[in-house]
Amino acid sequence: MLKDVGADEARWKPAHDAHSIWEEVNHIVYWSEDVFERLEGRGVSRKQAWPEGAGGPDEWRQAVARTVRLHAALVRRIGWATPAALARKSPRSRYTTAQLILGCASHIAYHTGQIAVIRRLYGHAQQPAPPAV
To answer: Using CA atoms, how far apart are residues 133 and 121, in angstroms rounded to an integer?
Structure first.
């Protein structure tokens, strides 16, 4: 989903009060890190966050690479979970580990959909205006 996105597209916002792809990615990473920390037993309460996406192509590639590394770490960590561990309450949470994982997956899916919409809007915004008739 992100491999063909450049830094300019990642920074673009469809409206002044909307999020960019980069902000969506940073938000996914922020909450996925939270879930990973909770799975490791180190989680602490966090507030809502939409870290800004800033920089050029190098910073964007680093953001994407961080996202890929975190996703791989989450998949590995989840793969180690036993049925008993999945049924236990996550530390400092009212949810079981399975609910936490499903919530994380749902969150990622939702924001991935947002990224797809932003990409489509960006593509339309880059098209020349149709000639007046």
So the answer is: 24
